[in-house]
Specification:
The chain is about 35% helix and about 30% strand. It is α+β, with helices and mostly antiparallel strands. Helix 1 packs antiparallel against helix 2 and helix 2 packs across helix 3.
Length: about 210
């Protein structure tokens, strides 16, 4: 597991403190101090990532409420020893179908909808494969902290077809995978998918 650089951890923490403080403070003096923390976080990002301060700060300041990790859900469909992946339009690489969880939906509802929209398959969720820290495991740098939930699913109907978010849909042998969209799905996730597909009693993995 490759740790992210200290500057990113510092900037994340400062932004989270700022966001939470701005949410709950009613004091103008404290509001100014919490905003200054967001400015420092944006300046750290500019220094180390080369991103301009103003749009970064604007993005930080529009984040609502108490700062918590975002949630990414992914669906694993394994048929005859092969795993279903979708080719992402954004980078041309492949990942388990899924995306950000929607407010108000059950995690299982979200993944059923995401799989249908991205692949054309109707599924039911059979078990939780794992809960992962979405910002570690060698993934590219991402400012906002996220958790990734991977579910094993069973196909009940439909047929493979891409949509506006995906270029292609295909099954791949675990030993012959295409280039992965690492931020979305990495070899660690797929190794656990393979293990669960071969062992229905396997317990969910977690970081």
């Amino acid at each position: 597991m490759t740790p992210h650089p200290p500057w990113l951890a510092w900037a994340r923490e400062l932004q989270a403190i700022s966001q939470t403080g701005l949410t709950f403070t009613s004091n103008d003096y404290d509001r100014g101090r919490y905003r200054r923390l967001a400015e420092i976080a944006a300046e750290i990002v500019e220094k180390h990532a080369g991103l301009p301060v103003e749009p970064t700060l604007e993005n930080f300041l529009v984040q609502p409420g108490y700062a918590t990790p975002k949630v990414d859900v992914r669906g694993a469909l394994v048929v005859d020893g092969k795993v279903l992946l979708v080719q992402e339009r954004t980078d041309g690489r492949w990942a388990l179908p899924g995306g950000w969880a929607d407010v108000g939906d059950l995690p299982s509802e979200t993944i059923v909808r995401e799989v249908w929209e991205e692949t054309g398959f109707q599924v039911v969720v059979s078990k939780l494969i794992g809960v992962y820290d979405g910002n570690r495991s060698g993934t590219p740098l991402s400012f906002y902290h996220a958790y990734k939930l991977v579910f094993l699913c069973e196909i009940t109907g439909g047929a493979a077809r891409p949509n506006e978010e995906t270029l292609d849909v295909a099954f791949f042998d675990f030993d012959n995978l295409p280039p992965l969209s690492i931020e979305r799905t990495n070899p660690l996730h797929l190794a656990e998918v393979r293990a669960h597909a071969g062992d229905p009693g396997r317990l969910a993995a977690f970081d």
